[in-house]
Design brief:
- The protein has 15 helices and 17 strands.
- The protein is of the alpha+beta class.
- It has three domains: 136 residues, 2-Layer Sandwich (Beta-Lactamase), CATH 3.30.450; 109 residues, PAS domain (Beta-Lactamase); 158 residues, Reverse transcriptase/Diguanylate cyclase domain (Alpha-Beta Plaits), CATH 3.30.70.
- The strands form four sheets. A five-stranded antiparallel sheet has the order 2-1-5-4-3, with helices on both faces. Strands 7-6-10-9-8 form a five-stranded antiparallel sheet, with helices on both faces.
- Strand 16, helix 15 and strand 17 form a beta-alpha-beta unit.
- The protein is rod-shaped and about 125 Å long.
- The termini are far apart.
- The mean pLDDT is 88.
């Protein structure tokens, strides 16, 4: 009998030694915890890692549970007891995080995990494992603080911040989108933002964004975006891609944009003032010649049709001499008004001299240009201008030429000018095509 007891004791001791050797290889503490029917708590078994984690020898904890329990942070002890009692009542796995005041003076975060079982005497025995998660908690708290700071910035910055995926679908829009574009952020999420751009702009912007993102470069551009009320807003945007470290492809595109509508309006107004004749609303000579050069290059490239019309006011010097320059200006202003209300939106109207004007008619044949010029001539002929109680009238002569293949701008203008010269020579107030 004694031999059997000694053998059993030896076997138990060997098992304990194996348990200790195994527990030393683990990053935390293995333990058994028992809750008696009278509510008392004790630790039948604790691994040697207790010393390194909690600063207490395992034997002390098994002998006096208060040595460990007294170290639990006072703000966490109640929650600890509630979680144990809930686990004991339902025999559910216990899982809890708490702070522990280490004897060295620092506070550590501990995560406990244990499986309960009911004993014959009604007590509950947990088999569990504790690990130190202080670094994880600090990182987690630092991340939360960082997120809190960034969220505060994003939610209060006046610029619009948008995050898109590689397909151009909006995944996040800052609250400032309400102020800038009139949408609530949720209305934009899961939608492709290029759909808010004018159809003529969207393909170009999409291509520029894709090319810059594939190169991993930040793209700065000015775009028009439709406001919730229907009008367009000019935005100055800086778009930065996020490249995946795994495959080098871009996964996200961050756009930070601000409303520059007022600035664009000022710029366009300044451009208009620098290129437009204030009296007639026509382009000035330099701007008109630039448009004619571009139109000719395009027509030569596509072999499209283009006609030029030159015209001026008949006997304009006599009007100035008889009634003064104020009357002459009134005549020119009236001429400009008739042109602006008669011409198509893509017809280009310019003032190239004192009383000399010109039209660029893209896509128009010589015959179509003749019809338009005749319509203008009739309107000018019917106009009466009131000047200090007197009614003034005026007529206009026209010269027309259609682009020939390979013809220079100088050559085209010369032929139209010869048509105008012929109209003057043949009696004025007429439309004459170039030879």
């Amino acid at each position: 009998m004694n031999m059997n007891m000694n053998a059993q004791a030896t076997e138990n001791l060997e098992l304990l030694r194996r348990f200790e050797r195994l527990s030393e290889q683990l990053p935390g503490t293995l333990y058994q915890c028992r809750l008696a029917p009278d509510g008392s708590l004790d630790f039948p078994l604790v691994s040697a890692r207790m010393r390194s984690m909690f600063g207490i020898d395992a034997e002390e904890v098994m002998r006096d549970p208060q040595r460990f329990l007294s170290g639990i942070h006072t703000d966490d002890i109640d929650a600890m007891w509630r979680s144990l009692q809930r686990s004991a009542l339902k025999l559910e796995v216990w899982y809890h995080e708490f702070r522990y005041c280490h004897p060295q003076g620092d506070t550590r975060w501990v995560r406990g995990h244990a499986t309960p079982q009911r004993e014959r005497d009604g007590s509950v025995l947990w088999h569990g494992f504790c690990e130190d998660i202080t670094q994880y908690k600090r990182s987690q708290l630092a991340l939360r603080e960082s997120e809190r700071r960034y969220r505060f910035i994003v939610e209060n910055v006046s610029d619009l911040i948008v995050l898109m995926d590689a397909d151009g679908t909006c995944r996040f829009a800052s609250p400032s989108v309400s102020e800038v574009l009139g949408y609530v952020p949720e209305a934009l999420e899961a939608h492709e933002l290029v759909g808010l751009m004018p159809p003529d702009d969207a393909p170009r912007v999409q291509r520029l964004l894709h090319e810059a993102a594939c190169r991993g470069e930040t793209l700065r551009l000015e775009v028009r975006v439709r406001h919730a009320k229907g009008h367009y807003v000019w935005l100055e945007a800086s778009c930065s891609p996020y490249l995946s470290p795994l495959n080098g492809r871009y996964e996200w595109l961050l756009a930070v944009a601000r409303d520059i509508t007022d600035r664009k309006r000022r710029d366009m107004r300044l451009h208009e003032l620098s290129t437009t004749d204030s009296l007639t609303g026509a382009l000035n000579r330099a701007a008109f010649m630039g448009c004619l050069e571009s139109s000719l290059e395009s027509a030569n490239h596509t072999n499209g049709r283009l006609s030029v019309v030159l015209f001026d006011v008949d006997h304009f010097k006599a009007t100035n001499d008889s009634w003064g320059h104020a009357a002459g200006d009134l005549v020119l202003a009236c001429l400009g008004e008739v042109c602006r209300t008669t011409l198509r939106s893509n017809d280009i109207f310019g003032r190239i001299g004192g009383e000399e004007f010109a039209l660029i008619l893209n896509g128009q044949s010589l015959q179509e240009a003749l019809v338009l010029a005749e319509r203008l001539r009739c309107k000018f002929e019917q106009v009466r201008v009131e000047f200090h109680g007197h009614w003034l009238n005026f007529t206009v002569s026209f010269g027309i030429a259609e682009r020939r293949r390979g013809e220079s701008m100088k050559g085209l203008l010369h032929r139209a000018d010869m048509g105008l010269y012929a109209a003057k020579r043949l009696g004025r107030n007429r439309v004459q095509q170039a030879s």
